[in-house]
Design brief:
This protein has three domains: 60 residues, OB fold (Dihydrolipoamide Acetyltransferase, E2P) (Beta Barrel), CATH 2.40.50.140; 69 residues, DNA polymerase, domain 1 (Orthogonal Bundle); 68 residues. Helix content is 44%, strand content 18%. It has nine helices and five strands; from the N terminus they run βββαββαααααααα. A hairpin with a 4-residue loop joins strand 4 and strand 5. Helix 2 crosses helix 3, helix 4 packs across helix 6 and helix 8 packs across helix 9. It starts with a strand and ends in an 11-residue tail after the last helix.
């Protein structure tokens, strides 16, 4: 099993690269995001890899970020999701966005990836939601907003709950609170709700927004 490669980049395309290590050129399939981050040909490269051995082929998939590899391994364990489809998902959605889409059951976002139908999207959500909750996030994978208010803090959750009681979906509420939290140093619960409502296009009623 080839777990990683360190060598010289010989060539690259949006979906693959050739990396020379120890005098051997390895063809490595990569996501568009990993490909975009590769240096110019002739420069040193390190990739985490996963080798997939089939009866008719041996394929090597490479990842610049450990989080991409973790998500890749989780997805290929889902029925109906092979390595190429998993790589297509990672090309269409960055890891943080993919995590959020699964946690918040955003079927529409998942089906925006070519090759992912509604049933496959629903399988990904059902089979991976709990696993993603249990999987520790790598450092920097889901950074706190600039204002410093962490997602899932008590104030964050209270603001989201207040918005959902007003009829917004959990995804809408969380996105609005995230945007507000990122522009405030230390927003109060009232500020979070009022400004999130303004973003969502519904004015707050004085005295009604506090849970």
């Amino acid at each position: 099993m080839i777990a990683s490669l360190r060598g010289t980049l010989l060539e690259k395309t949006p979906g693959a690269c050739v990396l020379e290590a120890g005098g051997v050129g390895y063809l490595v399939q990569v996501s568009s995001h990993t490909a975009a981050g590769l240096p110019a040909a002739g420069q040193p490269v390190f990739l985490r890899t996963r080798q997939i051995v089939r009866e008719d082929a041996v394929q090597l998939f490479g990842f610049a970020a450990a989080e991409e590899l973790e998500l890749f391994d989780l997805m290929i364990a889902v029925s109906g999701v092979g390595p190429r489809l998993a790589l297509a998902v990672l090309s269409g959605l960055r890891p943080q966005v993919l995590r959020r889409a699964i946690r918040e059951e955003q079927v529409g976002l998942l089906t925006s990836v070519p090759g992912i139908g509604k049933k496959t999207a629903e399988r990904l959500i059902v089979e991976l939601r709990d696993k993603l909750e249990a999987l520790a996030l790598p450092a920097g994978a889901e950074p706190a907003p600039e204002g410093g208010l962490l997602p899932r803090s008590e104030r964050w959750n209270d603001a989201v709950a207040a918005l959902t009681r007003l009829g917004y979906t959990a995804a809408q509420a969380q996105e609005a609170v995230r945007r507000v939290a990122g522009t405030e140093e230390d927003p109060s619960l009232e500020q979070l709700v009022r400004r999130a409502l303004a973003l969502l296009g519904k004015p707050a009623t004085p005295g009604k927004e506090r849970p």
